[in-house]
Specification:
Length: 262
């Protein structure tokens, strides 16, 4: 089987930093270098770091269609991987380009683009880099409407219903994974939400959108979830509400890993 990472089986005992367990407890965000946690709704750099270690090689190309503050592009560059990011918000894209420029280039390309990932001409973005395929796609979509990222109607966080959200997410999957090399991997980071007195299992709904398209499910990883900026100072009230009602406070999110086999 062709190699999809740089792990040397003969040195398997030396990879203490690479996790192989399905439960990811990450206590502290990596805030080194250009990484910072300022963007509301970002993920910790350790998520792309672990995924890129397991599923990509040096100089591979990584696509992030929900780039946000560019956490995965920064991490890719640090790990000597090339990356292409797309986000709907022009101002966010400008910030990413400026922050990446503060990191050593490491002989890599990291390009940030403004666009709607459902319809963006990704073939053209790849052609501009002289490539036809990418070797990994990392998806970190809005968790439906939990955080409204913009006023833009094309923003997945502004979709009116769960079905609309999943349909739009499916369009992003189709528009991006057509450029994912066969037998390589993609991952989706997503949490659940609570509405109308019940859990909306967004994670499993999104997982199904991949399964319907014939991707192989390789992992369901559960990652702990720290205090968000929004809820940070409301711990007491949420504890009171949970204790006196019938729900639990979300403390985890999912990372689903898929293999493209057709
Ligand atoms: C959960 S955030 C991603 C955060 C990112 N992983 C980080 O660490 O900063 C989701 C992003 O998706 C973007 N977005 C929403 N709908 C989009 C669409 N149709 N096309 C491209 N980006 C979109 C939002 O602007 C937001 O920045």
């Amino acid at each position: 089987m062709p190699k999809y990472n740089d792990i040397n089986p003969a040195e398997w005992k030396s990879y203490d930093d690479i996790t192989t367990d399905s439960l990811w407890i990450i206590e502290k965000r990596d805030n080194s270098g250009a990484h910072n946690g300022d963007y509301h709704g970002n993920f910790v750099p350790q998520i792309p770091h672990q995924l890129f270690s397991r599923y990509t090689k040096r100089h591979d190309w990584i696509l992030d269609p929900f780039m946000g503050s560019g956490t995965s592009l920064i991490e890719a560059q640090r790990m000597e991987r090339n990356s292409i990011g797309i986000d709907l918000q022009e101002n966010v894209v400008g910030d990413v380009a400026a922050r990446i420029a503060t990191e050593p280039a490491n002989g890599c390309v990291a390009t940030a683009h403004t666009g709607d990932s459902r319809t963006a001409d990704i073939g053209q973005l790849l052609a501009a880099q002289g490539i036809e395929k990418v070797q990994f796609v990392i998806f970190h979509p809005p968790y439906w409407d939990i955080i409204h990222f913009s006023e833009d109607n094309n923003d997945l966080s502004n979709t009116a219903t769960l079905d609309d959200f999943l349909a739009s997410f499916g369009e992003v999957i189709d528009n991006t994974t057509q450029y994912l090399e066969k037998n390589r991997y993609c991952a989706c980071v997503i949490g659940d939400k609570y509405a109308d007195s019940q859990v909306i299992p967004l994670g499993f709904h999104c997982m199904n959108v991949f399964l319907e398209r014939g991707f192989l499910l390789k992992a369901i990883l559960v990652k702990n979830f720290g205090e968000t900026k929004g809820k940070g100072n409301q711990q007491g009230i949420w504890r009171y509400r949970a204790l006196t009602h019938d729900f639990y406070i979300f403390k985890h999110e999912y990372i689903f890993v898929f293999k493209k086999v057709k």
